[in-house]
Amino acid sequence: MRTETRQISIIGGGLAGALLAALLAQRGWRVEVYERRGDPRVEGYAGGRSINLALAERGLHALRQAGADRDVLKQAVMMRGRFVHPLQGEPGLQRYGRDDSEVIWSINRGELNIVLLNTAESYGAHLHFDHRLDKVDFDAGLATFHHHEVETVRPFHALVGADGAGSTLRGQIDKVLPLGERTEWLDHGYKELEIPPAANGDFRIEPNALHIWPRGHYMCIALPNDERTFTVTLFMPHAGVWPSFETVPDADAAQTLFEREFPDTLPLIPELRKDFDDNPVGSLATLYLDRWHLDGRAVLIGDAAHAMVPFHGQGMNCAFEDCVALAEHLEANASLAAAFAAFEAQRKPDAEAIQQMALENYIEMRDKVDDADFLLQRQLELALQERHPGRFVPHYAMVSFMRIPYSVALQRSEVQREILIDATRGKDSLEGIDWNVVDAEVLAKLEPLA
Ligand SMILES: Cc1cc2nc3c(=O)[nH]c(=O)nc-3n(C[C@H](O)[C@H](O)[C@H](O)COP(=O)(O)OP(=O)(O)OC[C@H]3O[C@@H](n4cnc5c(N)ncnc54)[C@H](O)[C@@H]3O)c2cc1C
Predict the structure, then answer these.
(1) Cα distance between residue 422 and residue 438, in whole Å
(2) Which of 18, 99, 305, 381 could in theory staple to 300 by disulfide, Cβ–Cβ 3.0 to 4.6 A?
(3) What is the pTM of this model?
């Protein structure tokens, strides 16, 4: 049981900050949220990166805890699987799960943020917009914000850093307690483009899917939006090869790239040239820290603690799991210091596991999803799921449809991948599989999942 005051100040009113505010205010905490941007409900959402996001079970579960799931799902589009568009051959849907109970959802970042801010406020959280954290005096318990050109100093009891990958709070903690920060930049970046609705107002391509155009060392993906558009993201290296953002620097080069490599998208993206010139190239990185908290005075969550590359669509889902875990530890521990330590001990191995799986999934998405060996392994994965329910659970299902710790999903996925590769080596169908051997391996290497 808690003996300290139930008061907390959250830096960042983005996805994690707003959700944590809701979860804590709901439990009776006094919550102050300081967000650098203006109120998106008044001024419109001031973008940033990725217009839409894939929401999976981990994130949905957290939204249910805050009572925000219904409002979010009203604006979401269901994605049943990946719709793969090879350069040669027929495009087609590869389902993620067994049926429509195993799907993910595409949601607009701004709409999601607004639902979460409204939810937090409805539970009594105090939201302060246009407050950019500049510096913190941890000993005095004072935080300095930049507010409409004016310096404003606010007292705090404890701070939560939900201020994203470039976290200012992280930098401030690091000055008094080195956090062992290490950023690994991906040598690939991204650019967003748009598929508008068709002339009749409908979606131009299958709406209930995450589309992928895999091309080896680069790819395009497209996620649906509820206003019947798709946000297309082109991922490719920054430099050094063709194509890269260095060798495809402008609209003319982009036109040539798309004519050659993504010809079926040309009629879908009428503003390709404009989008390519107008939209910036985004960078991607994985952030590792040795520690996430400063005794009972500050803790980091979400991207501020463990930013990851977006290829498993789990950064926000993981950040939302953080919020649920932190709220639970804050309720269960007598002191903030104990709660922050318990939170870090629980979540750090899981964050590192999903960071690793996110990096691995880039290769799967851009290079494997139209590969015959991969498709055969996927067939075997589904067959083994049928033969060993609750024991052999496909990798994607463990990450996206379940809430088992990411570290467990990673460890089991590695064992399963070996079984799949060994059993399909040199085969082009499941005909020649020695089921006795494969079943025995599954039983020997995988315990049933709780
Ligand atoms: C291209 C791309 C695609 C992605 N796709 C997915 C996906 O499909 N699914 C998924 O789960 N994740 C996805 N992610 C990851 C996801 O965007 C992040 O993991 C998620 O936004 C993290 O939430 P957060 O609240 O920790 O940080 P953020 O969303 O970055 O929020 C941080 C907030 O803090 C505020 N802030 C920053 N500095 C200060 C300051 N000094 N003072 C006050 N406020 C401050 C910011 O304005 C912002 O509102 C994607 C990421 C990218 C780049």
Answers:
(1) 9
(2) 305
(3) 0.97
